Amino acid sequence: MVRKLRCSWWESLSLKQYHEKVVEHYNNPRNVGSFDKDDPNVGTGLVGAPACGDVMKLQIRVDEKTGKIVDSCFKTFGCGSAIASSSVESMP
Q1: Where would you find the membrane-spanning parts of this chain (predicted)?
Q2: What is the pTM of this model?
Q3: Residue 28 DSSP code
């Protein structure tokens, strides 16, 4: 689950350093959620960065016949740029 954070004056000032698309994906992340881990057509990747405390789980659903990715979702716990980049990566 992605939590929206209330920004202080100082944090809102630092948001200006990010491109507007990054801020948009942070404020309105796409494809947040998770798939059934027991589904044989679902693959899960989990990555974390101990130095900054970010943890990201990305899941994809693959069409059994074509082998193509048909859906994706993510859950990220971490900073705004981690949430935004997970959102962008989950887009088709």
Answers
A1: none
A2: 0.72
A3: S
